[in-house]
Design goal:
The chain is an all-alpha fold. The protein has 15 helices and 2 strands. It has a two-stranded antiparallel sheet with strand order 1-2. The structure holds a DNA duplex (21 and 21 nucleotides).
Amino acid sequence: MGRSPCCCHDVGVKKGPWTEEEDKTLVEHIQKRGGHVGSWRGLPKAAGLNRCGKSCRLRWTNYLRPDIKRGNFSDDEERLIITLHAGHGNKWATIATHLEGRTDNEIKNHWNTHIRKKLLRMGVDPVAHQQLPPDHQLDGSSAALLPEALLWAAAAATLGGLDIGALRQAQLLQHLLQAGSNNDATNLVANLMAASNVGLNSSNSIVPNILLQDKFNMLPGTNYLQPGYLCNTSNFAEQDVVQQQLINAMSPGTSSFAAAEPADQLCNTAAFTARDIAPGIDMLPVQEFAGLMEPMEQLPNLCSLESDSFWKELLEDGYRL
DNA sequence: AACCTTAGCAACCGCCTCGAG
DNA sequence: ACTCGAGGCGGTTGCTAAGGT
């Protein structure tokens, strides 16, 4: 298949930065046609522009389009980009479809100039989305940022080919991280409920309740889920039962993490099982979840929190990341 | 003040994919 | 099944402004 010559090679076609006048001409031409461009190749002549069609399309889609959102990227947008990048790689156009008002070019530029460097500073390989070996990390000054970066990168890498369920799981993780941002119990409960909403409502996706369980266990006197088990139901009615019973069981008077026992210790003293909460719901041993997490070689076993100093410190710090 | 370096980003280039004929 | 035109995409370039010496 022979490649057609690009109109950009035409002699006399202007290149380089667009002037205000050119922008105005292009916008007015497209608006006159009700936003419908038709043929980009034929547009310059029709609009009276000395540009190639490709250049016009690029200028319109990346800059002049009315629905483009400009300005700094929010933390949420950055997290989403990292998550999506782990699943899709440099498929900027695919990533852009998940960020309303952002163009692939803008996301690509932001990745290369900001996010990539941020991840490197945090000791995370921006390509493999895994922790870099110690001798490849920049310095220890950003060590406090490592847990969040790791969790995000690892979760994203684990999710692999992203689908709606996977994205919801990523959101769940995000809520969990937000829940750990301070010691306010009310905020924690609100975030946990938000997290469980995302997880429990996702159809055909396994909700990592082991993570929720650790969060719940951080509240004194609460043990809601049998450690080592996951809720694997996609039945909304059953999910609602679980959720309602979790909410009912939640004791609102609990205050801080300060008196919380280490998670593993609590794991061994579960007050009642998940089957007590919602009989009939299929529960899977955590080993199956561990199977899902297999690619996360850099992460410690989630059931061995107490034995790993990194995670132990993280837990004792009340998930303050 | 002049020069150099770096960061940010708009725009370009060339290959790929898709759909009509 | 094949060709070809057109749009889409990702990598890269080059300009500009800000910061440093």
